[in-house]
C-alpha cells in the first residue's frame, strides 16, 4: 500500500530521477531521511524498479525507430521468443498483446540498412516467429509517465 506522500515522491522522481532526497523532502514536506526510507521501501516492493536518464537516440546516430507486429507459430511460444528477442540489443521494448499480433516490439536502428539487417539476420531467425510486420515511426510526439496526482 502506498499513501499520498509516496505518490508525491514518485511524481517528483518521475519528473527528475536525479533529484536529491533533500530536494524531494522540501517539495513534499518530509525530512531527507524519511524520503530515503520511503523510496527504499518502494524499491524493495518493486513499485520503483530503477531510475535512469533518457537519451535521444537520434543525437547518437540511431535515426530509425520501428514497431514490429510479430506473429508466432503458436501462442505458447511467447516466453521462448521473448527470451530470444531480449538478446537482440536493438530491441528496446517487448509487449505480449491481444489482437492480431502475439508480440508488439519496438526497435531502434542507425538507418534503414541496419533495420533490414536486424529484421533479416536477427529477428526473423528466431525460432517460433512466423512473420513480422514493420511500422516505421516518423516522429515521437509524446512519451510521458503515467499521471499520479
TL;DR?
The protein is of the alpha+beta class and 149 residues long. It has helices spanning 4-15, 21-28, 32-44, 78-86, 112-122; strands at 64-72, 91-96, 103-109, 129-137.
How are the SSEs ordered, and which strands pair?
Blueprint: H1 4-15, H2 21-28, H3 32-44, E1 64-72, H4 78-86, E2 91-96, E3 103-109, H5 112-122, E4 129-137
Antiparallel strand pairs: 1-3, 1-4, 2-3
Model description:
The protein is of the alpha+beta class and 149 residues long. The chain is built from 5 helices and 4 strands. It has a 4-stranded antiparallel sheet with strand order 2-3-1-4. A hairpin with a 6-residue loop joins strand 2 and strand 3. Helix 2 packs across helix 3. The longest helix has 13 residues. The chain is elongated, with a radius of gyration of 20 Å. 15% of the residues are buried.
Structural class: alpha+beta
The run of helices and strands is HHHEHEEHE
Q: What is the arithmetic mean of pLDDT?
A: 95
| Distance, first to last CA | 16 Å
Biggest sheet overview: 4 strands, antiparallel
**Which stretches of 5+ consecutive residues score pLDDT under 50?**
none
Radius of gyration: 20 Å
Name the beta content range: 15-25%
**Helix coverage percent of residues?**
25-40%
Strand order of the largest sheet: 2-3-1-4
Inertia-based shape: elongated
- How large is the count of helical segments? 5
Q: Could you give the count of β-strands?
A: 4
Amino acid at each position: 500500500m502506498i499513501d499520498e506522500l509516496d505518490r508525491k515522491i514518485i511524481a517528483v522522481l518521475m519528473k527528475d530521477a536525479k533529484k536529491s532526497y533533500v530536494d524531494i523532502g522540501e517539495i513534499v514536506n518530509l525530512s531527507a531521511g524519511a524520503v530515503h526510507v520511503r523510496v527504499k521501501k518502494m524499491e524493495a516492493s518493486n513499485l520503483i524498479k530503477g531510475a535512469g536518464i533518457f537519451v535521444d537516440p537520434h543525437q547518437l546516430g540511431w535515426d530509425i525507430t520501428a514497431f514490429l507486429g510479430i506473429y508466432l507459430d503458436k501462442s505458447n511460444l511467447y516466453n521462448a521468443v521473448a527470451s530470444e528477442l531480449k538478446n537482440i540489443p536493438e530491441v528496446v521494448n517487448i509487449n505480449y498483446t491481444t489482437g492480431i499480433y502475439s508480440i508488439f516490439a519496438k526497435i531502434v536502428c542507425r538507418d534503414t540498412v541496419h533495420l533490414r539487417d536486424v529484421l533479416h539476420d536477427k529477428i526473423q531467425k528466431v525460432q517460433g516467429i512466423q512473420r513480422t510486420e514493420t511500422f516505421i515511426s516518423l516522429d515521437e510526439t509524446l512519451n510521458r509517465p503515467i499521471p499520479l496526482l
